[in-house]
Amino acid sequence: MMHRLLRRLGAALVLLALSGTAAAVDWVIDHVDVFDGRSEQLIENVSVAIAGNRIAAVGRNLEAAEGASRIDGGGRVLMPGLIDGHSHLALIADVRTLQQMTWDEIGARMAVRATETLQRGFTSVRDLGGPVMGLKKAVDAGLVDGPRIYPSGAILTQTSGHGDFRSPLDLHPFLEGGTSNMQRLGYFRIVDGPAQVLAAVRENLRNGATQIKLMGSGGVGSDYDPIDSVQFRPEEIRAATGAVADWDTYAGAHLHNGPAIERALQNGVRSIDHASQMTEAAMRLLVENGASMNPNFGWNKLVLQAGFLTEFQREKARIVLDNIDENLRLIRKYDVEITFNVDAFGDYGIWESVNVAEFTERQRYFSNHEILRQVTSVTAGLLAMSGRRNPYPGQLGVIEPGAYADLLVVAGNPLEDAALLADPHQNILLIAKDGRIYKNAL
Predict the structure, then answer these.
(1) Which of 114, 203, 369, 423 is most deeply packed, by most CB within 10 A?
(2) CA distances for 146 relative to 26, 141, 242, 405, angstroms
(3) Burial class, 3, CB count within 10 angstroms (exposed 0-12 / middle 13-18 / buried 19+)
(4) What would the pLDDT profile of 195-217 be if each residue is shown by its tens digit?
(5) What DSSP line would sit under 23-50, residue for residue?
(6) The predicted structure's pLDDT at residue 64
(7) CA angle 367, 7, 412 (to 5 degrees)
């Protein structure tokens, strides 16, 4: 109860401090009810003023200099732009198809996927593996419409690990001097031993990675590794986590089974993605280490329907699905704030379906307010873990003065039904990122 009263008091103080004049603003949106990214209560009937790429003020009776435009929000809900903590903008097809594609086609499709992502309301994404450095530069330069991208660069995998996406005829890069199309294009890098891991991490950092990603356990969509396999030795993980710590950022890891999660946490990994087979011991370690738990739920509904999975992969998926209830029990018991992660990839149909399912499936387990916090301010905290490597060091995921002007206007109240965000073409009427409006259907 006290927590809720403090939140309401904070919202009232914002209104009190900011009512009146908003100087040197470029545009103002009036008559909106604001979800600020945190509170359970909307801030009712206010205006939001934008100056450059930042929010200048939130309050009533805001004034703007002559020439500033004004938009009537019509009493709708304004909220922060959505944040996806586990994106794959470069995985525009399934792995077997990508192995046969040329870079010019992949690049064109990636640009389209970035624009589609923004039009779904996602103004920031943490891309967890793939050659998106050039796409990020194009988006930042305004050449391609897309979200803010926190790139990881090439996925780092051990030989036979979850990220070893060689086709059966591709020779090993070190044992036999071979390569593969996907490795050549920068989707993954096979590394064995601390020295190779260290060099690969440093290469990703050199290329602009804001964090790096390890494949720490078996996974569903790979052809050779069992889901229970523990990947990368402790000394290999420490080579990676030590290197990123020297650059004031962190390592995340694809992790399913409990022993792999424990090994990763014991050796410095701070972002535990998927985390589908959490154990009591692993969850205690996560809380003690202040690490982030980043599960996704949309695939739980769709994975067994994916036509590109083999029976071996489908059996691995069944193992993951068997532990959902235990994971949720541990999340509640340890009061862990999880992030919002879609992990969508593949052709447009499956990509869109996973985006939709991530909202609707979460409604089975979390309140609408919890989901809205997960997809805004909570996942913004995950992006901020990149420290001095953060390319966008301002505040994300909130509506408050000084924060980046990434915002949405929604038809209906997502605090009452977060699944409104699963149909953005119908329900998201305005999309702004970095102070620029990309959609206005008000």
Answers:
(1) 114
(2) 22, 11, 32, 15
(3) exposed
(4) 999 999 999 999 999 999 999 99
(5) TT-SEEEEEEEEP-SS-SS-EEEEEEEE
(6) 85
(7) 45
Sheet holding 407-410, edge to edge: 54-59, 43-51, 27-34, 69-80, 407-410, 428-433, 436-440
The DSSP secondary structure of 230-279, one letter per residue, reads: B-S-HHHHHHHHHHHHHTT--EEEEE-SHHHHHHHHHTT--EEEE-TT--
Calpha distance 48→353 (Å, rounded): 33
Q: In CATH, what number does 83-365 get?
A: 3.20.20.140
* CA within 13 Å, CB half, 267: 23
Q: Can you tell me the distance from the alpha carbon of 373 to that of 337, in angstroms, rounded to the nearest whole number?
A: 9
- Convert the pLDDT of each residue in 70-110 to its tens digit: 999 999 999 999 999 999 999 999 888 999 999 999 999 99
Q: What is the Cα–Cα distance from 273 to 317, expressed in whole angstroms?
A: 16
- The end-to-end CA distance of the chain, in Å, is 36
pLDDT at 67: 85
Q: What does each C-alpha distance from 361 to 135, 255, 292, 340, 356 come to in angstroms?
A: 30, 21, 21, 12, 9
The residues, ordered by sequence, that sit 6+ positions from 50 with a Cβ below 8 Å of its Cβ are: 25, 26, 27, 28, 29, 56, 405, 432, 435
Q: What is the pTM of this model?
A: 0.94
For residue 185, the model assigns a pLDDT of 93
The domain spans of the chain are 2-81+398-440, 83-365
pLDDT, position 227: 95
The rounded distance, in Å, linking the Cα atoms of 406 and 187 is 29
Cβ atoms of residues 339 and 374 within 8 Å: yes
The ranges of the chain with pLDDT < 70 are 1-23
pLDDT at 395: 97
Hey, what are 136's tokens? 């990020």
Architecture in CATH of 2-81+398-440: Roll (2.30)
pLDDT at 167: 87
The answer to whether 85 touches 40, Cβ cutoff 8 Å, is no
Residues 6+ apart with CB under 8 A from 413: 33, 42, 77, 420
Residue 303 is classified by DSSP as G
pLDDT of residue 63: 87
Residue 236 · residue 158 · CB < 8 Å: yes
The percent helix, strand, coil of the chain (3-state, each to 5) is 40, 20, 40
Cα gap 388→191, rounded to integer Å? 26
CA distances from 60 to 22, 33, 46, 352 (A): 10, 11, 5, 38
| Distance, CA of 1 to CA of 333 (rounded, Å) | 20
Count CA atoms within 13 Å of residue 277 on its CB side: 24
